[in-house]
Amino acid sequence: MTRTLRSAIALAGAAALSLGVMATSATALGAGSEKQGDIRIGLLLPESKTTRYEKFDRPYIEQKIKELAPDAQIDYYNAAESATTQQQQVNTALAKGDKVLILDAVDAKSIQSSVQKAHDAGVKVVAYDRLAQGPVDAYVSYDNHKVGELQGKALLDALGDKAESGEIVMHNGSPTDPNAAEFKAGAHSVLDGKVKIGKEYDTPNWDPNNANQQMSGAISALGKDKIVGVYSANDGLAAGIATALKAAGMNVPLTGQDAQLDAIQRILLGTQTITVEKPYKPEADIAATMAVDLAEGKKLSSELIPTTVTSGSDHKVAAQLLDPVVVNKDNIKDTVVKDGLYTVQEICTPTYAAACKEAGLE
Question: Of 231, 234, 136, 126, nearest to 179 (Cα)?
């Protein structure tokens, strides 16, 4: 996998470049292009348990599509964590006449037949956040291997001299999510040989309840005095893990991802060490731009798809990969607040007022 964008520019530059591309790539219609009134796009998201999809991804994508093509028809589907449901939703989208699908796959492998069906029907597929298998036309996400690297490094930094004095527990995410495999590989590339991994789990459906049970089991099996840190692939899992740690009277370094509000608040209280922010708007805007351009019959510009990735089905897919950023107690204002993810008021409710003041969030 190449990472031209990551090696060329930082996240801010990537966002600025992408937004500049969006302003120009979906304006004038070229020869053979569709009229805006003919544009019909299906948006298929995987679940609603993680707060990002309904609060950020869906509204950002829909807003950008409407900005680029005001008369476009958007058909929205949420699979509620069911791969079977998502396959049925693709069938529905095709029956409705959607010309492009923006697809965040529940199960990247099982959705392959649906991607192939769309391809055979002449419908373009933009893989969003997770790289679906099959003949996908374009893909936008963050550099997921780097996410794992950042999480692993942050955990090592937090452990310091304790890295060799005990064991860590790893919670890697859903085995059906190709991103989870990349997070896991990135984390192992940093952690292997530097810490002892006492227990390691894949967590089906990214379910916090499963993570809670796994962590409780690890504490019982290893003993709470032996566990010096916990790798969590995302903030949802971290929520379940933090509950199990608290029940055992433990407070050890804990990672996360997605910059969920509750994770930011745990970071302020010191019960979670870091999260990894992947700003939703640049990713959503790029996906929307790809979809509108494809619906209008345009060839995607090299600025929009500067790199290529290989899916699990061995398909080469034109892509844009953005750079993630670590959020800790010291840079909350300069990351999630500055990026407009949350306001200080949303973060600093009365429960967190003292911690916010200590962190300079006022």
Answer: 234
